Amino acid sequence: MSLLEHLQTERELQQVLATYARLCDERDWALCDAVFAPQSSAEYGGWPLPDRDAILAMLRRHLGGCGPTQHLLGNLLVEHGPQGLHSRISVRAAHRGSRELADLTYECLGEYHDRWVRTPQGWRILHRRMVITLELGSRQVLRPAIG
Fold this sequence. Notes:
Elements: H1 3-26, E1 36-44, E2 47-49, H2 52-63, E3 69-81, E4 84-96, E5 105-119, E6 122-137
Parallel strand pairs: 1-6
Antiparallel strand pairs: 1-2, 3-4, 4-5, 5-6
């Protein structure tokens, strides 16, 4: 792979990862298809999610009733290896509670380790493993929407 091809791939992955942050922070659940492959799976903090529907259900359950959030991603590393395309990116996700929990916050720092697949629509995450290195505040703010 040429340097130009590598840089193009890296840029495409960054766009998908930025779309993931938008999906979370804007609760735009329809963006899930632009981030995860249909056959995707994940592991968030040790919890296995066998398919894209389970990933979306987890995001809705944790963010649907949460107050404002900000998912910051940086320090992207991309590797082309014998088992395909892999990336690591640092994440800092800040969450504020809503309604009666508005005075609580929860912050999570870690990394997303992603395995990618090329689809007709572009690169998509095939498998995600979130490694949490630091948590601050209360996980109580993570909850589904009411009603």
